[in-house]
Write a structure and sequence with these properties.
The protein is built from eight helices and five strands; from the N terminus they run E-H-E-H-H-H-E-H-E-H-H-E-H. Strands 2-3-1-4-5 form a five-stranded parallel beta sheet, sandwiched between helices. It is globular, with a radius of gyration of 17 Å. The chain is of the alpha/beta class. Belongs to the adenylate kinase family. UMP-CMP kinase subfamily.
Length: 220
């Protein structure tokens, strides 16, 4: 039964959190899953990066500082950006399966990164169906990020910022994964392999989520 206090009804709107360390392959895999399952892909990081450069943004300087230091932006800012993006998608409508009769499908990438974010979003915006957790070694992630940094133009794709991001991720995000694991809502995928191998594993998780495999879990 849907919680009436949330913006979206989790019986109609599917939210899958996509987590994993920096460079774990979240963005690459999300792009594939969007093609296969008609998801709207919302990257918390992309929304924040866009907001920091938006003329007149009250959060721009704060976001810039957090990104540069590898720290986490206050949850109110990130949740507001995600909720607004979801409202816009639901209002405008999308073609394809999963978007009829007030329904929707969202992959939320790189969020929640802390426990307070997780609890607040679940309580006020929409209860997530499952956490798709991409795991690999820091060595693999560092190599990928440094390679990406050659062309990405991202100011945080350098060794010093990357190591700060790893520390933040281990301290703040791993407890989120542990929390959802206890609820039976984490599907871990080893993202060390090829894009195709990881995609096959991630696709099965999504099929299970859309079939309601995780919906029997009661939170709280």
């Amino acid at each position: 039964m849907a919680d009436k206090s949330t913006t979206f009804d989790s019986c109609k709107v599917t939210v899958i959190y996509v987590l994993g360390g920096p460079g774990a392959g979240k963005g690459t895999q999300c792009a594939r899953l969007v093609e296969d399952f008609d998801f709207c892909h919302l990257s918390a990081g992309d929304l924040l990066r866009a907001e920091q450069h938006r003329p007149g943004s009250q959060f721009g300087t704060l976001i810039q500082t957090c990104i540069r230091e590898g720290t986490i932006v206050p949850m109110e800012v990130t949740i507001a950006l995600l909720e607004n993006a979801m409202k816009a998608e639901m209002r405008d409508g999308r073609p394809g399966e999963g978007w009829q009769d007030g329904r929707g499908r969202f992959l939320i990438d790189g969020f929640p990164r802390k426990m307070d974010q997780a609890l607040k979003f679940d309580e006020t915006v929409c209860m997530a169906s499952v956490v798709l957790f991409f795991s690999t070694s820091e060595e693999v992630m560092l190599k990928r990020l440094l390679e990406r940094g050659k062309t990405s133009g991202r100011e945080d794709d350098n060794v010093e910022s990357i190591k700060k991001r790893f520390r933040t991720y281990n301290a703040d995000t791993m407890p989120v994964i542990a929390h959802y694991s206890l609820l039976g809502k984490v599907a871990e995928v080893d993202s060390t392999g090829s894009v195709e191998e990881v995609h096959a594993l991630a696709s099965q998780v999504v099929r299970d989520a859309l079939a309601g495999k995780y919906s029997t879990v009661v939170v709280g």
